[in-house]
Amino acid sequence: MRVFKFGGASVKNAPAVVNTASIIHANVNGPLMVVVSAMGKTTNALELIVNAILSKQDYKNELQRLKDYHLNITNELFKAEHPIHKEIITVFDSIDDLSIKSFSEDQLYDQVVSLGEILSTLIVAAYVNQNGDKCTWLDAREFIKTDSNYRESKVDWDSSKLAMTSINFEVVKCYVTQGFIGRSTDGLTTTLGREGSDFTAAIFASCLDATSVTIWKDVPGVMNADPKRLPAAIVFEELPFKEAAEMTYYGASVIHPKTIKPLANAGIPLLVKNFDNPKLPGTRIHECNVDDLPPLIVFKDNQCLISCKVVDYTFIDEAQLGIIFKALAELSIKINLMQNSAISFSFCVDFRENKILKLIESLQHHFEVYYNTGLTLITIKNYDEKTFDFYRKQKGVMLEQSSRSTLQVLIKA
Ligand SMILES: Nc1ncnc2c1ncn2[C@@H]1O[C@H](COP(=O)(O)OP(=O)(O)O)[C@@H](O)[C@H]1O
Ligand SMILES: N[C@@H](CC(=O)OP(=O)(O)O)C(=O)O
Has residue 382 been placed in a domain? Predict the structure, then answer.
């Protein structure tokens, strides 16, 4: 059994859905589990709608725009009498009901934002069937069981695996299901964190003991840098799980960071392939050794550098670090780079405004706090002399750190 995952770019408009269906067609004899994300930038649009509902602002225009976007796609793909148009309208109508229910902010977020994946999978499943291939729409929430930590839910692996024993590939060869979403024990829809559909593919693969996972992207495979940043980047034919895990940890957005662990633990290869050119070999991530990997460069934008300086010339010690780490843990903020001197501790984190302002406020009770935003963290794994010199000499370096294999520089662009 194999798992395919199609992201937002693979289903961003009608021709993209047709292309996705053609890739499914070539593999539909299965057994196949197809995981699909929301179309294009739908999740961002649904976030705007949730924010408008929460701040009691008008959300109807944005909702109409998103509804039109989906209905334009169904109008291009299906005849007027096809039931899909009505199904899509029903999903959009449900947002009005959700907006007046007494959910917490995060619960409301998950109930609304998860609808992007419901919409896309209804359309893809209907189109694959119209195309003459048999596939069954599967509600991922019946199988991906999570805790109640809305927006960033943790998977209950045992319950999910148990639920998946009812999936029968003898009866149905091809299922189409949603990435990114699950269900809590409270019975409400949950989400697994932004860009979490790759992770969903890994969960299904691990629980169903798949032979491989293929994630279909707009790039020819995993490259030694984001080709949008470095057009000369080269494609890896194969990569060890360890290298891929580290790349994602440093911020390479081509694969969601939680995807690698379940696959590596189960020994399930991860293939990254190009949806525009499925014949290209792509990248195979598996247990292997690759000698002489080229320097691997990861750019992580929207970084914030925070420096905590002691106020009375005490040296930075374990107690002071304890205060800083406790504040970070309470807000679930991950450090991307850190460095200490005698009287100050500096660290770099993703700039999520709400959380960071709360963090700074809490740290100001103990330290003089300085911070800079709008920074980019560049990580170069397996650097050579040329890349090492080049990135250290970038303009605006604010912090720099290197080990025997990895150089990190934080720059103000
Ligand atoms: N090392 C890398 N190799 C290939 N693509 C990368 C890399 N780092 C970042 N990317 C970016 O990842 C994008 C694909 O991921 P993403 O946009 O999340 O796809 P989707 O949402 O369709 O799943 C590419 O368009 C590319 O710009
Ligand atoms: N639609 C969700 C989940 C996801 O993984 O999307 P994509 O596969 O397009 O990155 C998001 O945008 O966060």
Answer: yes
- What is the domain range of residue 65? 2-217
Q: What is the value of pTM for the model shown? A: 0.94
Q: Which of 217, 239, 256 is the last residue of a domain?
A: 217
- Ligand 2, atom 2: closest residue by C-alpha: 195
Q: Is residue 140 part of a domain?
A: yes
What is the average per-residue pLDDT within 351-377? 95
- ipTM of the predicted assembly exceeds 0.95: yes
- 41 CA → ligand 2 middle, Å: 8
Taking alpha carbons only, the member of 182, 12, 201, 32 closest to residue 113 is 182
State the pLDDT confidence band at 148, using cuts at 50, 70 and 90: very high
According to DSSP, residue 114 is labeled T
Give residue 254 CA to ligand 1 midpoint distance, Å: 4
CATH number at residue 344: 3.30.2130.10
151-181 CB burial, b ≥16 within 10 A, e <16:
ebbebbeeebbebbeebeeeebbbbbbbbbb
